[in-house]
């Protein structure tokens, strides 16, 4: 079956200048929606599960669900990724259940809400990198705390997110520190903080450079041209999805997400993984609200889950196209985690630091 590691997939994306959306999953309908979209445009897939999703769906169900999706679509490489791992154990058990990639989010302590210091982040991330690379799995780290530059607040996603208020020094990743972090931890991908936050309420107006600091991405990419950058909280929160929800009895206050053009700008500067959950949640909820509002006598879950799946699949397909994924799935030959483990052991995948060194080679 075509399971792929994050590292191999993002190396391919970097080579061909595209980005890959990472969609969150909690149930079968979301899994089918993602794969139908990927199949329609021949796009490689990153499916990610948070700790909340693993608890909701059960690790055994998730494992077999991903096996089933891989069996249904053997020509689509699937990376199964742990979203926001909070400690070594979460990452280790994810790999036990067939995940090919883990995020160790050491920007927060293991409780998932207390901002951690830099030394803690380096140590815990390095421990996960050592463990994961022995078995060929990939690791995403995070430097800087995700939260709003407008309010200084974070938004909890599945119970993960800081409490209280932080300053811009913690909410923006420092480019020099990013170099040091990648050197010290050898992560395969780096999530950075630059004003995106989780959930639907990211911005109170269409974001500009004051609240969405895309320049941070450009500065980090210039120093770390070979490190794959990850944008979290990057749903675009489209107006039409807000409108459907509100038209059929929902009460979502007006809000703005990350414009697709800004993500495309990021992809030009090293962004290879773009995390999207809210847009899919909204698409499903709007479709379900519509059915239940228009047909109050309906009680067959399939009557609303089928349009919900179709609405999510449409969002996924659109993002695959917008990020340049079309046509790549069939061109990738996934390496096993065992083969990747050998590449790490041979030193082939060590992080390359700095433009000057690359130029000198
Ligand atoms: Zn996130």
Describe this structure in words.
With 361 residues, the chain is of the alpha/beta class. The chain is 46% helix and 12% strand. The protein has 15 helices and 8 strands. The protein has helices spanning 6-15, 28-41, 51-57, 59-72, 88-96, 118-134, 168-171, 175-185, 214-223, 239-247, 260-267, 278-294, 301-322, 337-345, 355-360; strands at residues 20-24, 45-49, 78-85, 101-104, 138-143, 189-192, 228-231, 271-276. An 8-stranded parallel barrel has the order 1-2-3-4-5-6-7-8, surrounded by 9 helices. β4 (101-104), α6 and β5 form a beta-alpha-beta unit. The chain is globular, with a radius of gyration of 19 Å. The two termini are 37 Å apart. 49% of the residues are buried. Zinc ion (ZN) binds at residues 84, 198, 232-233, 275.
Features:
binds zinc ion; alpha/beta; eight-stranded parallel beta barrel; 8 strands; 361 residues; disordered C terminus
The low-confidence runs, each spanning 5 or more residues with pLDDT under 50, are: 356-361
Helical residue percent band: 40-55%
For the biggest β-sheet, the strand order reads 1-2-3-4-5-6-7-8
Give the rounded overall mean pLDDT: 94
- Proportion of residues in β-strands: 5-15%
Biggest beta sheet summary: 8 strands, parallel, barrel
Number of strands: 8
Rounded to the nearest angstrom, the radius of gyration is 19 Å
The structural class is alpha/beta
| Bound ligand species | zinc ion
Shape: globular
Q: Please report the number of helical segments.
A: 15
Order of helices and strands, N to C? HEHEHHEHEHEHHEHEHHEHHHH
The N- and C-terminal alpha carbons lie at a distance of 37 Å
